Amino acid sequence: MAADAPIAGKTHQIRTIQAFDADEHAHNLTDWEQSYDQITPGHFHGCLTELQLPQMQVFREDTSQAVHQSCCVWPDTFWFGLPVQTGQTRINGRLVGPHSIMVRPGHCEFELQTPSDYVIYGIVMRQDNLQHAAERGGCLIDWAKLAQAEVMQVAPHPHQRLLQRLAGLLQQNGPYTDPAWRQQLLLNALLALLDTSKVDPAVSNSFQRRQRIVAKARDLVLSQHDETLTVPELCERLFVSRRTLQYCFEDVLGMSPMQYLRLVRLNTARRRLRQSNTQPVSVQDVATDLGFWHVSQFSCDYRKLFGQTPSQSRQMH
Where is the HTH araC/xylS-type domain (predicted)? Predict the structure, then answer.
């Protein structure tokens, strides 16, 4: 994907779109590669408000349920994420503290885990434009360190000012109308924040090892489309004890391996059922393919998580 493809030729209009499925919501953000799994039980409601400016993308994302997100933005950019309330936000397993922003370079997959009733503002900025603006403004930024960062601690005042700028820019009848002026206001606030920020120290070797174990487990689970893995099988393939696997998942994802496997299977079932208009499939076939041998129990677990039956999911899409 070309670096300027997502931004060139836009009309700079604010776009708001709602969704009632986590994975459908994930695909509403322009030019991102994303996949969302719903974690907490209940009906999902997501709202995305997005604005494309000449050199950046700005958005606000609201989600009613906790979700696990796999995300990747286009190359040669930086993404900055500003949660309104950090709560139990995790980026690549790391908890995000108050007055923090998250940052990742483009074309680099990362994972987020966000709590219920969550609001986050996002900025995607071309790397070269951000560097040029920093040079013109005399901001001293360690770009190599920024590219490796996941979490940055920032001063409360510039953090709050940037949040206010973002909220104002995304109002349909807000005070800022000229695209270039909008972008300059936001860029000034972002650079002021970066100029006073401090990159969180690198995680310990032990936490990095736990991250790797969880990442390998996730890759195994997602790659085995025709095989339903159990916790003992994961331990065997990863060469770790059950206790080690339990500790890794609780530390990185805040849940047990058993909970994780169940959530992945239920979210996979939902995707297949919602695709059944183009690829006809029965509820029983989906359940048994994913290792739910008792269809009635599968339906009960499904309804508890998503607030509707498997059959309703098929009919609504």
Answer: 215-316
